[in-house]
Write a structure and sequence with these properties.
The protein is an alpha/beta fold. The protein has a single domain, classed as Aldolase class I (TIM Barrel, Alpha-Beta Barrel), CATH 3.20.20.70. The protein has 8 helices and 13 strands. Strands 1-2-3-4-5-6-9-12 form an 8-stranded parallel beta barrel, surrounded by 6 helices. The chain has a two-stranded antiparallel ribbon with strand order 7-8. Strands 10-11 form a two-stranded antiparallel ribbon. The longest helix is centred in the first third of the chain and has 18 residues. The chain starts with 16 loop residues before the first strand and ends with a helix. Belongs to the KdsA family.
Length: 271
């Protein structure tokens, strides 16, 4: 299913694949530290793994929010992670001009949920030849994602993924409608973004909240419902992470969670 991805391993294990890493690249040491631990865990559990890190954060609530350490500096760190640990990498892009730049450093280009209807952005990502991960808009139905997938294909790229990151439920909460998973899996490999689905946006302080205590609940439901991949953001110090710390999984809790999820996957596979 994703064996066309450079450097991807454990593809014969019949596991879900994992997109995992920090929300944003804060520096080289932190990125390498997180990647080393996740690679160790996923190799042990035979999970195909893609390191995730945003090279910049364009969608911020406040003007003084962290946006990045510099585009080229962060992209070079993503390349170093890939070369050091021999894993593919993914980062999100926000403007059509980002596509070619980021494609020179990473293997998968991610389209943020708020931007997935932006035709120029989606087409620019597709035309790089990289895998395109399309995040379902919080305002979109699962059925509507067929149009985003078709844009990628019409641009000459057959390698698109869909990632569900929840649907807005009122102003300050998200829900995951698991009925959408089989619908979207008919269009493209489908990923469940566990941690962003637990965000609590639009807080009056201008910092997004979250429910990390529900990460295992949502992840288990995704695996039971046969998602192809899982997306999780993790950090060794979420309280001091520069972006999305409120809904990230602590790195110390990742191995136990993935071990449980692999066991569930094996049970589902046997049915």
């Amino acid at each position: 299913m994703i064996d066309y991805l450079p450097k991807i391993k454990n593809v014969d294990a019949n596991n879900f694949f994992l997109l995992c890493g920090p929300c944003a690249i804060e520096g080289e040491e932190m990125a390498l530290r997180i990647a080393e631990r996740v690679v160790e865990i996923t190799d042990k559990l035979h999970i195909p793994y893609v390191f995730k890190g945003s090279f910049k954060k364009a969608n911020r609530s406040r003007i003084d929010s962290f946006t990045g350490i510099g585009d080229e500096k962060a992209l070079k760190i993503l390349r170093k992670v890939s070369e050091t640990f021999d894993v593919p990498t993914i980062t999100d892009i926000h403007e059509a001009s980002d596509a070619a730049m980021a494609a020179a450093y990473v293997d998968v280009l991610q389209i943020p949920a708020f931007l997935v209807r932006q035709t120029d952005l989606v087409v620019a990502a597709a035309e790089t030849g990289k895998v395109v991960n399309l995040k379902k808009g919080q305002f979109m139905s699962p059925e509507a994602m067929k149009h985003a997938v078709q844009k990628v294909k019409d641009a000459g790229n057959q390698n698109a993924w869909i990632t569900d990151r929840g649907t807005m439920f009122g102003y300050q909460d998200m829900i995951v409608d698991f009925r959408g998973i089989p619908t979207m899996r008919k269009m493209a490999p489908t990923v469940l973004d566990v941690t962003h689905s637990l965000q609590q946006p639009n807080q009056n302080v201008g910092v997004t909240g979250g429910r990390p205590d529900m990460i295992e609940t949502i992840a288990r439901a995704g695996v039971v419902n046969k998602v192809d991949g899982l997306f999780m953001e993790t950090h060794f110090d979420p309280a001091n992470a520069k972006s999305d710390g409120a809904n990230m999984l602590h790195l110390d809790n990742l191995e136990a969670l993935l071990s449980n999820l692999v066991a569930i996957r094996q049970t589902v596979n046997s049915l």
